[in-house]
Amino acid sequence: PYRPFFALATLYNVVIMALWFTWLHGLEMQKSFFSFQISPLQTHFHWMLFGFPSLYIFGFLLTAFPKWVSAQQTKGPYNIFLALMLFLSQILILIGTLFSIWLLKFALLFELLMMLALFRLLFNFYISYPGKKLFDQSSMVLIALGFGIIAQIFY
Fold first, then answer.
1. Which candidate, 6, 4, 153, 152, places its Cα nearest to that of 82?
2. Cα first-last separation, the chain
3. Under a CB-based contact definition with an 8 Å cutoff, are residues 127 and 121 in contact?
4. To 10 degrees, the CA torsion angle through 16, 29, 32, 44?
């Protein structure tokens, strides 16, 4: 049910790698194909830390987490909506990085809100789990994901 996350992540990776190699080729040729609104190094950091892994991580977690806590998985259109919104946040970040610092700021906020919404969904799965313990696998995943979201806020 979470295949859209993986398909969109793969599509995003192909686009990002093509843009990155185009930019690197422009460096070799002493001409710029893009005008980055922030440092290309910061852009690369964000793409590698939060950009492409987020779709894969949430696709995996939304598949595995409900099974860990014996919860009912979300179905159909809701999953597609979540995947498209997270993908849209990545595309807006890409466009903002290349063209507009204000769009970039909006996109980063939108990405953060999408990740918080997905975290809340996983947290609701966890809360409904009757056999939860303080340091079981599912609670550790939530803690790690929470630290990742905090890292994104400070990034």
1. 4
2. 31
3. no
4. 30
